[in-house]
Amino acid sequence: MYRVLIVDDEEPVLDSFSFMLKEYTNDFILAGKARNGYEALKMIHEIQPDVVFMDINIPGMDGLKVIDSVHEKYPQMIFVLSTAYERFDLAQRAIPLGVHAYLVKPISKKMFIATLEEVKAKLIKNSPLTCLESKDSLIEKFFLNIMNHSLTESDMEMYRTRLEIGSNYGNICIIEIEERNELFLRDIASKIALKYFTVFYSRHNRGYYFISGNNTNSELRNSISEIIKQCIPAEIECVIGIGTEKEYLNLDKSYDAALDDLFKNKTDEQILLRERIRIVHIRKKIGYAKKTEIQKLFETYWEEVFEYYDLNVAKCKMAVFINLLLDDLQNYYKEIETEINIVPVEQEIMNVKDINEWKEWSNSYFNKLQDLFLEKRSNALPAPLLKAIQFVKEHYAEPIQLTTVADEVLISPAYLSRLFAEYMSTTFIDFLTDLRITEAQRLMKSTNMNIKEIGSKVGYSDPNYFSKCFKKYSGYTPTDFLELTRTEVRSV
User: Fold this and answer.
1) Cβ atoms of 94 and 82 closer than 8 Å
2) C-alpha angle with apex 188: 183 to 192, nearest 5 degrees?
3) Do residues 45 and 34 lie in contact, with contact meaning Cβ atoms separated by under 8 Å?
4) pLDDT digit string (tens) for 213-230?
5) Residue among 138, 159, 150, 356 at smallest CA distance from 252
6) Residues 388-391: contacts with CB within 8 Å, 24+ apart?
7) Residue pair 12/106 in contact by the 8 Å Cβ criterion
8) Which one of 3, 23, 350, 402 is at 20 to 30 Å from 75 when CA atoms are compared?
9) What is the pLDDT of residues 343-374, one digit of tens each?
C-alpha cells in the first residue's frame, strides 16, 4: 500500500479525502492528516509518506514552502497541490518543485481517483524494484538472510538501498498468533509502520517485523502491545518477542533474542499443546486436504520444534512423528491388500547434520508419504462418497443440499451423512461450507470483485447469510477479511 498524507486546514476536505481513500482505492492508505504547514513538515519527516495532498493556503508555512524545504531530501515523494483559486503564478512556482498535479477545489471523486491512478503509475515507474524483482521477494530474502545468519555486508548495503532503509540500527520483533487469524499480523504491521520505519514479512502464523532506528526494548514492547490490543480481539491468543537493538550486520542476533523472548513468554504447556494440535491436524487431513495445505502444516510444525529444542531432541521428535504417520498407514488401512513398502527412517533422521539437511530430506520424504496417504485413502473411501465429494467440488457454487447430492449418487441422505461423519470426520454442510469459504477467500485475494459478487459466485444468494457463514468459518467478517487481504505494508 502507498501511504498518503493529507494537508488542509478545512475539516470537510480532510474528511472527504479520507473517505475517498478508504472507500474507492485498494492501493492507498491514509497515513496522517496535518492542518498547518509546520505540522505538515513534521509529519513528512516522521512518516515519510509516498504521496502528499497539499493545500497551498494553509496557516503557518504555506504549502509551496513546505514542498520547497523537503523535495530535495525526498525526491521520490509525490506532491499534489490543491487550492480554491486557479492562479498561474502559483502553478509556475510549483513546476520546479516537481509537483505532480495542481487541482482546483472543489475536487470531485472522479478527479481524485483519476489523480491517484496517475500517481500510482508514477510510483510504480519510479520504483527501483520495477525492473528487478518484486518487493515481496526482496523482503523474503532479507528476513531469510537474517534467520539463517547469512547476512553479509554487501547484502545489507543492497537491502538498505533498495528498501530505502536509513538508520544503522534496528530491532527484530516476532508476533505469533493462533492459526486462521494471520491477517491480523498485517493489520498490526500497517499500524506499526505509521510510527516506525517497518519492514514486514509473514510466514505461517508468525509476523516478523524489522523496525529501524534507535528504539529501546521497553518502548517497542509498550507501543506494539498497545497496537495488538487495538487490532486483535482479547479471546485470540497472541505472543510477542522483542529482539535487542543491533547494528545491521548483527540483526541475526536481534532475531535470536526475539525468538528467545517469544519462547520465554510461552509456557511449556502452551508449546506442547500447540505441538499436539499440529500433529492431530496433520493426521486428520493428510490424504484428504490439498498437498500444499498439509505441506504448510508440516513445515510449521517442524520449524517450531527445531526452534524450541536442540537438534538431537528435535530429530527424535520428528522420528516419532514420522513413525506415527507410518503406523497410521499400516493400521488404519490394514484391510487393503496392496502392500506398503515401509523403510525405517529413524537412522536416516538421526544422521541429519543440520536444519538445512533436514529440510531437504523431509521435503522429499514427506511428499512421498503424502502420495501414499492420498492413494490409500482414495482407495479406502466408499464409491458413493467419492462420487459425492467430486459432485460437491464441481457444483458447490449451485444451491445444492444433502438431498441433492444423495439423489445424484443414488443413496439415501441419512447414509450419505453417515459416510461423511465416518470417513471424513465432518458433516456434509461443514464440508460444503469449507469449499465455499475457501474459494471466497481466494477470490478476495485475487480479484476486484465486491463482497456481494463473491458470495453469489460461491453459492450464497443471501449476502447476510454469506457474512454469517464467513465469520463463523474464518473469524472475520467478509468486509474485514477483504480489507486486510488487500492491504500491504509499504516499508518506506
Assistant:
1) no
2) 150
3) no
4) 888 888 899 999 999 998
5) 150
6) 388/416, 388/419, 388/420, 389/431
7) no
8) 23
9) 578 888 988 898 889 998 998 889 888 888 87
